[in-house]
Amino acid sequence: MTDEIYRSPRKRGRIAVLLSGRGSNFRAILAAAREGRVDAGIVLVLSNKADAPGLASAREAGLETLFLDPKLFASKEDYDAAIVRELDTRQVDLVCLAGYMKILTPVFCRAFKNRILNIHPALLPAFPGLHVQQRAIEWGVRYSGCSVHFVAEEVDMGPIVLQAAVPVLQDDTEESLSARILVEEHRIYPEAVRLYFEGRIEIQGRRVFILG
Ligand code: GRF
């Protein structure tokens, strides 16, 4: 990571959401945009899964949706290059990964450097990867939570924008802890997007400063 300073733009933003599943974080961002809590609009919802419920709810909400089938591409890089072309065509400012279950290749990360956010259901850098709520319970941590972070080439390791902590209770199951964390995800993800388009996010190395 270099020491160059990045400052997010202050503008009405054009967002693309990438998802593979349920889409509850997508709906939280959409609600914030439609209620004017975030100065941005979602111009595209893209998925690698034709039957992702989140894609169906985007269609119902009247948004442009796109399913790109990874099987039709010779490599992961080709697939990501196709996504980048779709995003560029629509002049997307910010990509929000919301339960997107593919690892981004450097082709994508570099094209949208400092312009891709992700939400992760743990307090990074603890518990990167998958099944992290279950792993938090098994580890016996007293607190877990969620992190909104920029996407860098190393998975789940980009600069952290916002985090929220929740207690891990003794009788928690994966489902009960996930549900408690999800409430916070829906709060902090739109909040991070708001700060981004208020031009209030500055990245210095691996630290994010919230201005103003
Ligand atoms: C969330 O737990 C998020 O933190 C993780 O994937 C899940 C997506 O849920 N990255 P949803 O599709 O937004 O409901």
What does this structure look like?
The protein has helices spanning 24-34, 53-60, 76-89, 106-111, 132-139, 174-197; strands at residues 5-7, 13-19, 40-47, 65-67, 94-97, 116-120, 143-150, 160-167, 201-204, 207-210. It has six helices and ten strands; from the N terminus they run ββαβαβαβαβαββαββ. The protein starts with a strand and ends with a strand. The radius of gyration is 17 Å and the shape is globular. The chain has a seven-stranded mixed beta sheet with strand order 4-3-2-5-6-7-8, covered by helices on one side. It has one domain (5-210): 3-Layer(aba) Sandwich (Rossmann fold). The protein is an alpha/beta fold. The longest helix has 24 residues, at 174-197. 5-O-phosphono-beta-D-ribofuranosylamine binds next to α1 and β6.
